[in-house]
Write a structure and sequence with these properties.
This protein is of the alpha/beta class and 307 residues long. Among the domains are: 119-147 and 166-190; 193-306, Fusion Protein Consisting Of Minor Coat Protein, Glycine Rich Linker, Tola, And A His Tag, Chain: A, Domain 2. Helices cover 44% and strands 13% of the residues. The protein contains 8 helices and 7 strands; from the N terminus they run ααββαααβαββααββ. It has helices spanning 2-18, 27-44, 110-137, 139-149, 163-189, 206-222, 260-273, 281-284, and strands spanning 64-65, 81-82, 193-196, 234-243, 248-255, 289-299, 303-306. Helix 3 packs antiparallel against helix 5 (163-189). The radius of gyration is 50 Å and the shape is elongated. 10% of the residues are buried.
């Protein structure tokens, strides 16, 4: 009896062993479900480029200042760009830059005015020579042409001149003609000058003036005024007239530096550098004197420059 019951429960026990007691999720199905969720999340993400225009970086302003002195050593921490090295300067401790309350003055075109003036002078000289030659060669013809251009005289103007009046008129005409000729001759005897100003110089004088400048700077730096070394600085504007042979004809002080020691030193340097080279043939044929207006700069470092 006992054996039959055991045999009867054996198939059920085998069936219970083959079938899980609780319904669970298979690992493969769980993995597939997680994979689908991950792919769906990835596909849901969208990457779009930034369509907003980027603001263009502004160029930094380049500031350049002009200094009226220079130093032999470069500054360790430069504060601005300039045409020459300047390590320190001024009389105050704060960081300041020189300025002026005056408005900017208009730029003068000195070169154009000079060229126009020279051209006008040449035209007047040619007209003067033409009129003088006409007066000398044909006074009777000129009087006849002048008479033809005059309108018919009125009865009051019809007056017969006496011989003395005619002689006096002829003498006065001769005196006037002689005075005009004398003035023209005196003008022609004056030396022919060429002007080389600061802002302009004719191409024919460019090489000569550059050689002159280099010699002035060399002689001036070697003979810097001892009384002004490390103490006084400034600019002196001079007008120097040079003859054809290179000798100095005259020196005029156009603008003082405010220090007599610098003014005297500038004139002395110009005379020490003389004589200068003789004029080239193409300049000698046209001019007798070359007038140069330049500014001598007594700068820091005991240097003399020409501007």
């Amino acid at each position: 009896m006992f054996l039959k019951r055991a045999a009867a429960r054996t198939p059920a026990a085998v069936l219970a062993a083959d079938t899980p007691a609780e319904a669970g999720v298979p690992p493969l199905a769980l993995g597939i479900a997680l994979s689908i969720l991950v792919h769906a999340f990835v596909l849901a993400l969208h990457f779009t480029p930034d369509l907003k225009p980027k603001q263009k970086a502004k160029d930094q302003a380049l500031e350049v200042i002009l200094v009226n002195a220079r130093s032999r050593q470069k500054p360790i921490d430069p504060q601005a760009l300039a045409q020459a090295n300047l390590d320190g300067g001024g009389t105050v401790d704060q960081d300041r830059r020189a300025s002026t309350p005056l408005p900017v003055s208009p730029r003068e075109k000195t070169g154009d005015q000079l060229v126009d003036t020279q051209r006008r002078v040449q035209e007047l000289e040619s007209q003067q020579q033409k009129l003088l030659s006409e007066l000398k060669s044909g006074p009777a013809l000129n009087r006849q042409e002048h008479r033809l251009e005059q309108p018919d005289p009125t009865p009051e103007q019809k007056k017969t001149l006496t011989g003395d009046e005619i002689a006096a008129s002829a003498a006065a005409t001769a005196r006037n003609l002689a005075a005009i000729a004398r003035n023209v001759d005196d003008y022609n005897k004056k030396p022919r000058k060429a002007y080389a100003l600061t802002r302009t110089q004719e191409y024919a004088f460019a090489r000569y003036i550059d050689d002159w400048r280099q010699k002035i700077e060399r002689i001036g730096s070697l003979n810097y005024p001892p009384a002004a070394r490390g103490k006084v600085y400034g600019n002196v504007t001079l007008t120097i007239e040079i003859r054809q042979d290179g000798e100095v004809a005259s020196i005029a002080l156009e603008r003082s530096s405010g220090h007599k020691v610098l003014d005297d030193a500038a004139i002395r340097i110009v005379r020490m550098a003389a004589p200068y080279p003789s004029f080239p043939d193409h300049i000698r044929r046209e001019y007798d004197i070359l007038s140069i207006t330049r500014t001598l700069i007594f700068a820091r470092g005991d240097l003399v420059e020409s501007n």
